[in-house]
Amino acid sequence: MEGRVKVVGQVERVDGRSLTYAEFVDRFMEPNRPVVLTGLTGSWRSSEEWTLPDPADCGRPNVGFFARNFPSPLVPVADCSSREFTDQKRLEMSIPEFIDHWIRNTEDRDSSLLYLKHWHFVKEYPDYVAYTTPTFFIDDWLNMYLDSHPIHRDSDIANHKNEVNCADYQFVYMGAKGTWTPLHADVFMSYSWSANVCGRKQWLFLSPSQSHRVFDRNMRSSVYNLNDDVPEKHFPEFHKTEWLECIQEQNEVIFVPSGWYHQVHNLEDTISINHNWFNAYNLHWVWNLLYDDYKVAREYIEDIRDICDDFEGLCQRNLAANTGMNFYDFFIS
Name one GO biological process term (predicted). Predict the structure, then answer.
């Protein structure tokens, strides 16, 4: 992938055991810089049970453990070979079905590459403590708010009010070698962190100061895949982009700052744990996105303002449907 883009540097790698929270804030969170943190996952239950025990297997995923112990009704899966609008085509299947496909794909590389994404593992299995959130990431206003949201007590009421549409932003990802995630910036312009329980990933990062260069002339559509030929007539500024690269190894945790576009490829069979979150240091990123989306939602229905009994309420409901939260969620959280 790096052959098609200009890589100008590597993401810094720091031993998380020797880094204080204040140092993390000063060096990475407040200045909004990515970093790879090592030494933080050794005590995790997932590090032991989600990988094969035989040293000869080199920490490969213990997919059979998932099929036996986590019979989730349905999980969201992306077909990495099929594009649908601005993302990969989405499917739903059970964990045993997904694992069966994974095993068959290992034997027959002609079948489609499926990537389990956005599995709400913590919500589905709260008593199975797979990991402990590293200290650097526990000031998490988003998931703290969602933990007490009415959606967990009465999903019908929450859905009827059309407020938040996600139970939490704490996910497990599972994908075979070759699965990938298209170029994107994270939901809400939030921070995210991603820990490799096993496997290796390649990340390419673009600074927010250059993010406009991955969009077309009208700033409406963005580059989907850095592996594709990117036509200059559609994306005239793309050739000027300069990227940071990172090869994330097993048991390493990467901090993804707000507004950094990134594309990720699994270089080996991989299981990762991922959170999105925000706090005081990146709240302005979230607000700017929310307010911009609000203006779009309001403009879209401006012609019915005079006949609408609750125009502002409709704007907020549409904002929540489009963006995943509205002003109420933002100010309460």
Answer: positive regulation of translational termination
